[in-house]
Amino acid sequence: MTWENYFMPSTTGEVLALLEQHQGQARLVAGGTDLMVQHRWDPLEVKSLIDIGRVPALKEIREDHGRIYVGAAVTHSQLVDSALIQGKGRVLAEAARSVGSPQVRNVGTVGGNVVNAQPAADTAIALVALDALVHVSSPGKEREIPVAEIFLGPGKSSIDPAKDLVTAFSFSAPDSRERTYFVRFARREALALPLVNLGLWLQLEEDGHALKDIRIAVGPMAVVPYRARKTEASLKGAVLNEEILKKAGHSISEEVTPRDSFRGSAAFKKRLIGVALKRGIERALDLKGVDRHER
Amino acid sequence: MPGKRNVLKKGKGEIMKFSNLGKETPILDGLEKVTGRARYVPDLKMEGMLYGKVLRSPYPHARLVNIDTTKAARVPGVKDIITGKDVSQHRFGPMVPDWVILPDDKVRFHGDEVAAVAASSEEAAAEAVALIEVEYEELPAVYDPELALEEGAPLLYEEKDNNIAATFNVHSGDVDEALAGSDIIFEETYKTNQVYQAYMEPMAAVAVPGDYERLIMWLSTQIPSMSRLRYAEALQMCAEDLRIIKPHVGGGFGAKFEYKSHILAAVLTRRTGLPVRMVNNREEDFRAGNPRVPMKIWVKLGLSRDGTFLAKDTRIIAGNGARTVYAPAITSTACYRIDSLYKFKNVRSTGYTVYTNTIPTSCFRGFGNAQMHFAMESALDTICHQYDMDPIKLRQHNGVTPGFTSIHGWEIKSCALEECLDKAAQESNWYEKKKAPKQKGPVKKGIGVAICNHVSGNRPFFKPFDGSSALVRLTPEGKAIVFTGEADIGQGMNTAFALIAAEAVGLNVKNVRTAAVDTDISPFGLGSFATRGSTIGGRAVYEAAVNLKKQLLEHISRVYEKETDQITINNGNIYFDDQEKPVPVAEAMQTISYTLGGTSLVGQGVFVPDTVLPDENKYGNVSPAYPFGCHIAEVEVDTETGRTRLLNYWAAHDVGRVINRQTLEGQVEGGVIMGAGWALGEDMVINDGVLLNPNFHDYCLPTAMDIPEGHIYSYFLESEDPNGPFGAKGIGEPSLNPVPAAIANAVFDAVGVRVKTLPITPEKILEGLESG
Q1: Cβ of B681 and A187 within 8 Å?
Q2: Backbone dihedral region of B468: left (phi > 0), alpha (psi from -120 to 50 degrees) or beta?
Q3: Cβ contacts (< 8 Å) between B640 and chain A: which residues?
Q4: Residue B170 within any structural domain of the chain
Q5: pLDDT at B5 over 70
Q6: Which of A43, A47, A229, A293 is the most buried (most CB within 10 A)?
Q7: How far is CA B629 from the centre of its chain?
Q8: Is the Cβ–Cβ distance between B455 and B609 less than 8 Å?
Q9: B356 and B220 co-located in one domain
């Protein structure tokens, strides 16, 4: 299984030109940590690969007019180490830290993680919680799409890697009343698919007590990463206490629709998501000391 | 003080000083391993070498109606394809003759060998395998050993009346009477699951045509000499015409015994006249390796009110998989080895090893004793809880002691079990922690203990004999080479042998090495199993070294004109009583050698342990030395998620004598981690005969992140066994045996949930918490 060409362009313009030139016969590759494994079972039917990992513009993390921009080829390790993301996108930094192992994080990119569209993709869950936009360039056009809208099914997104280049993700920089958090439960501490991923963004009222707004992104609780909107609605305006958190835990357990697999039963995942929400909110708001083991 | 460990009391206050033993010696081949220079079987490249690949059955049980290789044979580069029609159908096997080279009638598990291809590239071989057209007729299948025992279950071997591959029975004393007279009767059922050894190097062989019509096989194996006998039988050739070479081996943990693909490589080489390489990919290794024997263990114990063990009654149903590797011997070990850990007076045990349409099972560190330890040591913990006894003291009350002969005639010559319990209890603060109140909040801590025994060699494993022989050659340059047939598979045995030889002769270990096993050169050695290497293999090396030293002293006496009792050899130097300045061994050896036609000195050593094959009542001492240990685990359990985390682990082992402290610690830490992986999550998930997690992503071995770094503490007690070299006993398997029970007991202490089926998953803990 070999390819005719492996391109290493250095600008987004060159990437788009190559996509246009090869008319669907070339596809993008970034870190390749998912792609190369999938290729063994389900060979990629293209003649050429275009490696976007050497395009400097795609590897930037920056803040601009109140928005944080993360280039598509930014690696998970870059996210983990970025002071900007740690400070203003904690949920994303924590999600990136959860991915695979140091080797995978050093190579795998946020763009790949999202476009690959796995139902529990860590950074995808975080970006959904952040209500991020995906910036897409295709030959001759540019689009911005809410990240939650690109997922079509397990492993399927509306981004076509033979036509579309994701250039960046962006989300608004949080103000002092916003908090984020990421909770993950898996069979082991590294190199494991999550049983439950939960990305949280919340905003407090000015009094600092009631919840003004909340976004809860979860996976693998359906075929795609998604928001637990019913539970979100039930928490809006609530003044948090143990009772409310317990109810919210029950609510989200009822709301999600995970499936049974040998990795874990649906009932077990439903139970864990409730714990994840409760702990996520507690920790986002520092209601209790953070357990050193939990992320 | 590490230095202090090298000084030992011997006899009446006499101090033995070692210049090589008891230190932290990095393995002698460590540098080449960590720099990637060490060559393993999969690294071998030979002129004209072909790549072998096996076609494996996609069905758990199916009749082979027709196999068409026409399309496969047309793939460019394909040199040979074999099916059951092309090979002899004679049966053979390590324990039961239920193997054939390739079947011509039916396949019995998902992954069973159907055909094999040899081609000039891996790609061509894979393409050809995919193009072999097989017409299968699916047959009803059975996967659960208990269901396979039922009347009317599908038969794996139609010529047999049932699916029982082997039955083991033992009864000593009178169990029924003893139970009738017991104050406490405890009965419970435990299950241990199927797990994978997960050695780094997959199963591998390279077969090469040799001169004189011989066949050379480079194998990743634990048993070079024994596999030579078995493969000669399979290939219907004289064992002498088969030369086995064992280079570096990347782990085995029991799996690397006789293996089908090795034989297929040999057949393809004999047919093509070209070298053939056969290396499993990881998925194949999962699907058709030799995983642990799963067991359902029913235990009944009778005790007196003061905690004295009166009776033990057990029944075991064990999964053999679709053909017999070593599961029957493993089941019998589960049935009765633990009886020599305690001072039992009445024991009865029955074990059935049952065929199922699943992966053939075999040896895995612990060899059945580990499975039984989970049941027995869990049971004792429950008894202690129910009757308010201390788990440490109950074990000290019933545990074997030096000089004891067990109910099966096992002679416990050395034993520091009681001291192991004290040491682990003391280092872990056992008594304080047991008294401490439980934590508030959702996460609870708990502490649990389990002890173990094992063997250092197992007489019934290879019927003709147990024992070992070795050669130590001292070259004209004063360097020593140890020749043994015992197989270092990564444990550091070659370094241990070098240390033993160095110590016994008086050399520095830097000038000693152990040769790779090559059956043309090395003595016959049974191999790496039954924790026998250091004790039996090491003792043969010791004897060879002593023999060499005797010769060396005589030659020194001749050359330097001194009486032998005036000569001391230590750390590579020769000291004369009447002379200040020592003579280096290298200098003396050159003189000795050059005055004798350039000869090397060769010491030969033999060790035949005073063991016997057990009689019809299974009575008889099977091992020259018995190692013991005590493990204490501390865990925390999250009552909301069910997740268990290991916090601290204390392992105290009676090893007889520390040969190499570094590898000993490595073995203990490795055993604990392997046992923790098994206890807390590893599981081969088989659904309708198909393994669902044949990769390291879905088969969750613990990662470095799951193990508390720096919190596995090992302690070594030196009971100086009279049979072991310098008193040494084995460590490989005892380091794992008690782990699942110690962790299960700690989980119980933490949250009051008794998990009786491995692994201890969050689901089982949550379920236990809910049912109260």
Answers
A1: yes
A2: beta
A3: 275
A4: no
A5: no
A6: A47
A7: 17
A8: no
A9: no
Phi-psi map region of B618: left, alpha, beta (phi>0 left; psi -120 to 50 alpha)? left
**What whole-number distance in Å separates Cα of residue B240 and Cα of residue B540?**
23
Give dist(CA B404, CA B415) in Å, integer.
9
Taking a C-beta distance cutoff of 8 angstroms, is the pair B307, B75 a contact? Answer: no
**Does B414 lie in the same domain as B472?**
no
For B:437-496, CB contacts with A below 8 A are 443
Same-domain status, B601 and B500 = yes
Tokens 């063991």 found at = B611
DSSP B320-374: EESS-SSHHHHHHHHHHGGGGTBT-S-EEEEEEEEE-SS---B--TTTTHHHHHH
For residue A211, what are the β-bridge partners?
A204
Same domain, B260 and B334: no
What residues make up the domain containing B664? Answer: 295-459+615-770
Search chain B and give the residue with CA nearest A196: B641
**Residue B109 belongs to some domain of the structure:** yes
Q: Tell me if the bond preceding A220 is cis, omega within 30° of 0.
A: yes
The C-alpha torsion from B246 through B247 and B250 to B252, rounded to 10°, is 10
All domains of chain A, ordered by start, with CATH?
5-51 (3.30.43), 59-172 (3.30.465.10), 178-284 (3.30.390.50)
Omega before B759 within 30 of 0, i.e. cis: yes
Length of chain A: 295
Instruction: Tell which of A189, A250, A288 to mutate to test the B interface (max B CBs under 10 Å).
Output: A189
- Is residue B202 packed enough to be buried (19+ CB in 10 Å), middle (13-18) or exposed (0-12)? buried
- B208 and B71 in one domain? yes
Q: Are B75 and B119 in contact (CB under 8 A)?
A: yes
Pairing of strands A48-51, A26-29: parallel
The Cα angle at residue B678 between residues B637 and B741, in degrees rounded to 5: 65
Residue of chain B minimizing CA distance to A288: B441
- Kindly report the CATH number assigned to the domain that includes residue B299: 3.30.365.10
Query: Does B706 reach chain A within 8 Å, measured CB to CB?
Result: yes
Q: Which strands sit side by side in the sheet containing B184-192, from one edge to the other? A: B164-172, B347-355, B309-321, B295-303, B184-192
ipTM (interface pTM): 0.93
The per-residue pLDDT for B731 is 97
Residues B268 and B125 in one domain: yes
Residue A1 pLDDT > 60, yes or no?
no
Q: Which residue has the tokens 């790609």?
A: B123
Nearest CA to B508 out of B565, B552, B554, B574 is that of: B574
CATH number of the domain that B126 lies in?
Answer: 3.90.1170.50
Query: Is residue B697 less than 8 Å (CB to CB) from chain A?
Result: yes
Does one domain contain both B667 and B722?
A: yes
Q: Is residue B19 part of a domain?
A: no
Residues 6+ apart with CB under 8 A from A205: A177, A211, A212
Answer with the one of B557, B591, B607 that is the final residue of a domain.
Answer: B607
Domain count, chain B: 3
- Considering chain A, what is the average pLDDT of its residues? 93
C-alpha–C-alpha distance, residues B390 and B393, integer Å:
5
Q: For residues B50 and B272, give the distance between their C-alpha atoms in angstroms, rounded to a whole number.
A: 9
How far is Cα A241 from Cα B472, in angstroms, rounded to an integer? 76
Cβ B363 vs Cβ B257: under 8 Å: yes
Q: Which residues pair with B691 in a beta bridge?
A: B686
Contacts of A275 in chain B (CB under 8 A): 640-641
Let me know whether B328 and B220 are in one domain.
no
Q: Is B147 domain-assigned?
A: no
Nearest to B205 by CA among B425, B54, B100, B309: B54
Q: Is the pLDDT of residue A293 over 80?
A: no
**pLDDT tens, residue by residue, B621-644:** 999 999 999 999 999 999 999 999
**Is 80 exceeded by the pLDDT of residue B8?**
no
